[in-house]
Structures are given as C-alpha cells and as structure tokens.
Amino acid sequence: MFGQANVLAQGQAEFPPGVGDFYLPSILPWGAENSFWFTKITAMVWIAVGVLIIYFLASYRKPQLVPTKKQWLAESIYGFVRNNIAVDMIGHQGVRFAPYFTTLFCFVLLTNAFAIIPFFQISPNSHIAFPAFLAVISYVLFIWVGIRHHGFGKFFKNSLVPPAPWFILPILIPIEFASTFLFRPFTLAVRLFANMFAGHMILLVFTLGGFAMLNANAWLAPVSVLSWLMTVALTFLEFLVICLQAYVFTVLTASYVQGALADEH
Fold first, then answer.
1. What is the 3 state secondary structure string of 98-151?
2. Most buried residue, 9, 20, 188, 215, by CB count within 10 Å?
3. Where are the domains of the chain?
C-alpha cells in the first residue's frame, strides 16, 4: 500500500489502467508464470475454508453439557442461523437446511471480514467470480429442492404460471421466468460483489489519498490526517456492511428455498 501511494504521488502510475491491472499476480515464489491461478484472493478463500473446518471440528471434538467458549460460540452461530433464518423463513422444514445456511453465513462473513483485516485488506467477494459461484450453488439448491418436493412438471408450472387470467399469461410467464431463473442468481451475486468492491475502493481512496497528499505538498499534511481519520471511521461502517451482507445473502437464499417449497409461488 505504501508503494502504491508513492507511485501515485510521484505520477509514475500508468493511466488509464488496462484490463491486466485487475488480475492479481501469483504469490508463489516459484513457477509464477505457470501458477497465475494461486493469487492472494485464492489463498484467502483456502484460509477461510481451513479456519471454519478446524474451528468447528475443534469446538465439537469433545462436546460438553456445560459448553466451553469455543463450543458456546459455535452453538450460538448455528442457533442464530437455524432459528432466525432457516426456521423463520421456511418453517419447521428449515431445520434440515440449517447446516448449509450456517456454512454459507460463516463463509461469506469470514471472507467479507478479510476486507478490514490488516495485511489482507481485500475481500475475495470483491472479485465477481466468488459471489457468482456462491449464487450458482444457491440457485441449484432451490431448483433441486423444488423439483424434489413437487416434481419436475409441477415445480416449473408453479414457478412460471401465476394464478391470473389466461389472456395475460403470455406476458406474465416470460416475466416470471426472468425474475425466478435469471435475475435471482444475478442479483444475488452482484449485490454481494458490489457492496464489497465499493467498500474496498472507498477505503483505498481515503488511505492512499492521505499518502498522496502528504507526499505532494507539506501544506496538505493536515488534510491527509483527516483522510486517515475518515478511513478509520469508514472501517467501522464497513464492518457493519460485512455482517449485513452475510446475513442478507443467507436470508435471500432461504427465501428462495421457501419459495421452491411453497405450493404456489
């Protein structure tokens, strides 16, 4: 980050940036030309998966009637998702989806949190590929649940043919198809991506802007301090966005599953 600030302040950065500037370099010290896929974002995803697996396995390795702090936290997270998302959105059938919703919530929350953790300072979800992949998983889940619950024909009939007069069905059926099978995964992915990308860019602008003003002119030093204070304040705001987006992504997935299980939707 300090190097980027000096480059910006000294006017050495290339403008406008090219498409290649959005591809992160490999972090492997060997064979970088053949290991372009293993970037900082890839490493963060692996770290998040490893942390979640190890933490929950360690928490439930020896479960106790009076839970330890690790067990209490794990049970609290699962209980929150089960009761406040799965059961509230779906009903008693939501309990069987609680493990997936808990995994989804924890993964999105942890990968979002990388945006404000020192030395990481970017969320994998600010790269459209990861929110898109999570949205595809939720998309396949609610379609599979609906087909299994209703059968192939009835599920698509309920999804595409609303209770309306026959003469307006040619207009409503394409709208229902687009909203259910096209817009749902698209908006689910873009909502998470846009929020995390925007948060990252705002923090980057205020942080690097402070260094750029400090290096450009001594008279701008007080303004650079103000820029860094704004960064601190926006970091707390970003923390709220991180938690909210993990909750919203999980709630929307639960609402899609609930719609797939409903008799008419």
1. HHHHHHHHHHHHHHHHHHHCCCCCCCHHHCCHHHHHHHHHHHHHHHHHHHHHHC
2. 188
3. 2-261
